[in-house]
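# nightly structure sweep
# worker-07 picked up a monomer target from the shared queue
# config: single-sequence mode, recycle default, output format = structure tokens
# input follows
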Amino acid sequence: MAEVQIFLTVEEAAAALRIGRTRMFDLIAKHEIESVRIGRSRRVPVDALHKYAEKLLQQPAA
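# output follows
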């Protein structure tokens, strides 16, 4: 059975977007990407990355 990932670490989420860890924490702090705390760990829902990408695609090209 294939493993389904619901949450990613901040590092995994940053790698998925091809950005740095610091930039990912900045996006989380600015509430541009949703995240949750599980114990002492910060996790990013996979859906939050898709929502962020959709939001970027809706912005007019610069």
